[in-house]
Design a protein that fits this description.
This protein is mainly beta and 218 residues long. Helices cover 4% and strands 27% of the residues.
């Protein structure tokens, strides 16, 4: 009896560099032709954020890759699928009709939905150790597969926001490259800023306390 050979389809990310989000386990697909520097942490354009100016902070990845671990936005870009339509927020002060079994069916009581408080966004540190930091724009943080993306303080389901930073000059011996990453809750605005310490560790260098009551979004 002759065994049949089953041809496995070539994955969409074949031939592309795979990188891991700094501080998280989500995997990104680098854009075609991207060159990865020989560093423990760096910025590189990826399919979900192809602009070099806003490229996220990432780390090299040499482990197994499967569709379940890849960034959903990167996969959507590789497939050429359109981006999902943004959720349209309900206008402030919209009246919502509530049914009341004790009233006639033709009647409805109206309740005005209160506005959610908006908290001011903290500023990213402009320098560290007396040297300026260049930050990327804020973008959605990769979703975590094995743990919750909810904010530990206010309980907002997330995902939160992430920005990558760097300082130094790769061509100057007296000004080495240093890498930073910041995570911020989009509701209570709690923010933590880390510097790469060693080959894989992150060192907390700044913490901006949340503005909302604890557990308000839980």
């Amino acid at each position: 009896m002759t065994a049949l050979a089953v041809e496995m389809p070539t994955p969409l990310w074949a031939g592309r560099a795979i990188v891991r989000a700094a501080g998280r386990m989500a995997l990104h697909v680098a854009v075609e032709g991207a060159l990865l520097p020989a560093a423990a942490m760096f910025t590189v354009p990826v399919e979900c954020r192809p602009d070099a100016e806003s490229a996220p902070g990432v780390r090299p990845w040499a482990g197994p890759v499967d569709e379940g671990r890849l960034c959903a936005s990167c996969l959507r870009a590789l497939r050429g699928d359109p981006a999902p339509e943004p959720v349209r927020p309900t206008p402030a002060g919209t009246a919502e009709a509530l049914s009341d079994p004790y009233l006639d069916r033709r009647e409805r009581r109206l309740r005005v939905m209160p506005d959610l408080p908006a908290y001011a966004e903290p500023r990213l540190p402009a320098e560290h150790g007396g040297r300026p930091i260049r930050w990327s724009e804020w973008g959605e943080a990769p979703k975590q597969v094995h743990c919750s993306s909810a904010c530990n303080w206010c309980g907002d389901t997330g995902p939160g926001l992430m920005a990558g930073g760097r300082q130094g000059n790769p061509l100057a011996k007296d000004d080495p490259l240093r890498w930073f990453v910041a995570y911020r809750c989009s509701y209570c605005q709690e923010m933590r800023v880390y510097q790469q310490a060693g080959s894989a560790d992150l060192k907390l260098i700044a913490h901006f306390k949340p503005k909302s009551p604890k557990g308000v979004r839980a």
